[in-house]
Design brief:
elongated, 73% helix, single chain, mainly alpha, MetI-like fold
């Protein structure tokens, strides 16, 4: 039987062997992921939206966000010049939609990263140390779980200055408890395995056990949770912006909905002002959810998610 050491050669280092195993694991993951149609559709949608968002300066230009340099009249219906019409200031809504994608995706990614990082830290440490620390950490987590996330985010966004980083902070520090609960349960499961006892018997300390044994085993679940958290973060950002708690100096999808409401687009029936940003939010959230469910299905085949 051919082993990994034989493939790499007798002089291969443990580090190169570890990287080879990771590359093979990534290849196996991708081979299984691409068999799921829903996951591939979600990934394709995200790639297209990400490319459009990155290309916004080239496709739309920074002047498209300016109120004083608006090329059209207020609230114009869709036309050849303005495929999605114009807003209340005469700006091209298609260009604003592209710029809004940059903000919404950035907030979603950063807020989800902060949320998952806090949840992973709390979950791993609470599951490892147990005792009084684990009890206190879980009671704090329970308190955040029973409190409405949106209410806490609104409170933070109201107290702090309105900026992009305030929105990221408000979402990140209020949405981590679910991740913490899941990671703690997985940590308890991992630490009950025999190789953890062997590691401790050989002198492995707390940091070694958590970083070398627990964290690699919980990372697949953390990755799936992070993908799902991004959609939640995007929806929360849009809600905060719609309520007027976002940064008024930037263009986001939620901010466009807020502008449409203030301009009376609902009562006047100007659907082109409301539908595009609302549909964009829904499509991106759905795409991230499809990718997250597919990742979870690949990493945990017992779920049996349909392909």
């Amino acid at each position: 039987m051919t082993t990994s050491t034989d493939v790499l050669g007798p002089g291969s280092s443990p580090r190169s062997l570890a990287w080879t195993r990771r590359r093979r694991a990534a290849a196996r993951f991708w081979a299984q992921y691409r068999t799921h149609r829903a996951g591939m559709v979600g990934l394709a949608v995200l790639v297209v939206i990400a490319v459009l968002a990155l290309a916004a300066p080239l496709l739309a230009g920074a002047e498209s966000k300016s109120v004083t340099e608006a090329p059209g009249g207020p609230m114009e219906s869709p036309s050849a010049q303005f495929p999605l019409g114009t807003d209340q200031f005469g700006r091209n809504l298609l260009a604003l939609l592209l710029w809004g994608a940059r903000v919404s995706l950035t907030v979603g990614l950063l807020a989800a990263f902060l949320s998952v990082a806090i949840g992973t830290l709390v979950g791993v440490t609470a599951g490892h140390f147990k005792g009084w620390y684990g009890a206190v950490a879980m009671r704090v987590t329970d308190w955040f779980l029973v409190m409405p996330t949106l209410v806490l985010a609104i409170a933070l966004a109201t107290v702090l200055s309105r900026s992009l980083w305030t929105t990221v902070l408000a979402i990140g520090v209020t949405t981590w408890p679910t991740t913490a609960r899941l990671v703690r349960a997985q940590t308890l499961s991992v630490e009950s395995r025999p190789y953890i006892e062997r590691s401790r018997a050989l002198g492995g300390g707390h940091g070694h056990v958590m970083s070398r044994h627990v964290l690699p085993n919980v990372m697949p679940m953390v990755l799936a949770q992070a993908t799902l958290a991004i959609s939640t973060a995007i929806l929360t950002e849009a809600t905060l912006a719609f309520l007027g708690l976002g940064d008024p100096t930037i263009v986001s999808w939620g901010g466009l909905l807020q502008d449409a409401r203030e301009a009376g687009a609902v009562s006047s029936g100007d659907w082109w002002y409301l539908a595009p940003p609302g549909l964009a939010i829904a499509v991106v959230a759905l795409a991230f959810t499809l990718c997250g469910r597919t990742i979870e299905s690949v990493l945990n085949p017992k779920l049996g998610v349909e392909r």
